Fold each of these.
Amino acid sequence: MKLKAKYMDKESKLRANIQNDFWYSFQNSPQINSIHPQIEGITLKLNFNYDESLKEEFIKLYKPSDKVFFRIECINKDCIYGGFNLSTEINHLISSKKTKFKGHQTCNGYQDYERYLAKNYHCLCRLNYIIEIKYDEKK
Ligand SMILES: [Zn+2]
């Protein structure tokens, strides 16, 4: 019992650290309009494949006053060091002035804490996404 409690404690500490890094990075990201004043809005249409089930699409809308922060948490609640980041794709779209891009990413986290300790079995949750960007033509 004692061992198990210690184990749980390490896991929750690790999860808390990962969560803190996520929020720290969010807090320290600039607003979209301070870097890309020509952008009127960004829409992300997301759905996930995990455990052979397809989760319903959900939509994230970014206003110009929102943060330049395009990390998306993994839907596998047990995942460690997982998640997705669409920053590279979005930056590429903006620099080439494109309005739409469709793609997918695979989660590179560990499936759960035990697999993280063993350093095997990646989560492999799949994110399918569509990025849409609206530009202000006058800027
Ligand atoms: Zn994951």
Note: The chain has one domain: 2-135.
Amino acid sequence: MSKDLGDSEKPLTPHTVSARDSGRAQVAHGNGHSAVIRQSADVFREPLKAEQQASTAIRMSKLNAWYGDFQALKNIELCIPEKSVTAFIGPSGCGKTTLLRWINRMNDTVPEARAGGELKIHDLDVLAPRTDVVELRRRVGMVFQKPNPFPKSIFENVAFGPRLHYRASRSELADLVEWALRKSALWDEVKDRLKQSALGLSGGQQQRLCIARAIAVGPEVLLMDEPCSALDPRSTLAVEELISELSNEYTIVIVTHNMQQAARASSTTAYLFEGELIETGPTHQVFTKPSNPETEKYITGRLG
Ligand SMILES: Nc1ncnc2c1ncn2[C@@H]1O[C@H](COP(=O)(O)OP(=O)(O)OP(=O)(O)O)[C@@H](O)[C@H]1O
Ligand SMILES: [Mg+2]
């Protein structure tokens, strides 16, 4: 439990900045990066507690999506629990990225893409035309397969979003950048080279920088599309540990082709096939006792 600090002593996080800016009642999250990284010998993460299962962050109902005439998602019914990791798995082309990209309306940029049905993040109606997409993307950050830092300094990569969204002073911004880099387990590696180009970092460091950039604006949800597929095993482990750590505070949705990763990193797994949600449930159950033979075929490598 974090100690109750006076306002002036409170560490600056996007949450405290936005609270100062907008006057909205928001809670500052802890005191920055915790050294405790979950190291479980178990293959599977612990099952979700009842209260986590009960609390849904993202709700999809009769969600359909098309690219022109091609239907890429068919009647998806899915509840994604809050503050935990949900994995989307399934063979190439089954619609994982499409589903992820509708959660923050990234598909708005694809002219022939359209979607219908219900997609809600808490009370926010994601697909409604009136929804403020800039604010939606602040609430729902995204990390891509290939690390994509801006061709700017390490500091500027992380400061970019907060500058866009908050009126923060220079020192507040510096605190916020440090907070996000610590939270992303990157601070110690970059603290002496913040002004150097982000492009000089290794792939694994760049991916953690992209995670720092995503959390710096105070999102509720982090979407990750195969975030480790371009990384070596050591960097993969670092990012997986980071995902585990971050899932205490953020709702994380990860797309992966790596079955071990889905088993290790997620609490809930959703299996998609040809645009349909075939099965969803606690990860250990989907992997050890899938209710649908199609899921078993995929997980055991007989499909895809
Ligand atoms: N911009 C687009 N225009 C037309 N069709 C598209 C577009 N993007 C994706 N699709 C099609 O939609 C289907 C789902 O694609 P999607 O990228 O969501 O699959 P995926 O499960 O993420 O696959 P992968 O594992 O290979 O990344 C595929 O048949 C794909 O060809
Ligand atoms: Mg994809």
Note: The beta strands are 56-67, 70-81, 85-89, 113-121, 124-125, 140-143, 221-225, 251-255, 268-273, 276-282.
Amino acid sequence: MPKILRSLRCQNCDGSLDYKAGEVITTCPYCGNTQVVEMSKPFMFEHSMLPLKIEEEAVEPVVRSWMRKGFLKRADLHRKSEITSQQLRLLPFWVVEVRALTAYEGIFDRVSPAYVKQDNLEKSYNWLILARRRAGFPTKEFDFPAAGTQPYDFRRVPEYAEVINAQLTKDEAVEMVQQEVEEHHRHLISKDVDRIVKIHTAFTVGEAQYVHAPVWYIKYKYKRKNYNVLLGGHRGIVIAGEFPRD
Ligand SMILES: [Zn+2]
């Protein structure tokens, strides 16, 4: 199937919005208005951003300093590698406020005799999820300051940035967050008991915030091989980076 580009008007400024099939939220490049696209009934809503601190010219020094750190990296990496491309993307995220109470029963058999343990695990989160399907983004490695967001301002988005639209609605995001939190709790509990017999998680879902965060997609070359680096544009911290290993 060819990629279908559809056209829609901004509810605020009447500018034309382009979005690809499968995208459910668009942000107007002319006024920054954000709306949900559901068939023919768009509605507007609140939208935040993490401000960009690492501008175009600051990327290379930050990457080179990352190359210099860590004993696994080759000593000449920062001198001998060449940055071949750098693209700024504003990635769409949902930050879901959730409280999860997991009641469980498990068997602890590290000791003899084994015994049954019943307990609760209760935690609150601002859980981050990328609003795209089939996304290989390492959300867990991304230090996302929930308190550092600001209202979305299209004037603060540089021309060279690519603003990515959401493919997940708020409800879908909330559902995925619940699955991930449940999985996370199962993992935590499996450190506490050797076999889980019963487990049930109840959720209290609070606010869900739609946020765009700047991420630099960088490619570099070292000894004729290519490597990728993802750099958070709000703090200049490498989220994930490939490098040659012996
Ligand atoms: Zn507009």
Note: The CA atoms of residues 27 and 34 lie 4 Å apart.
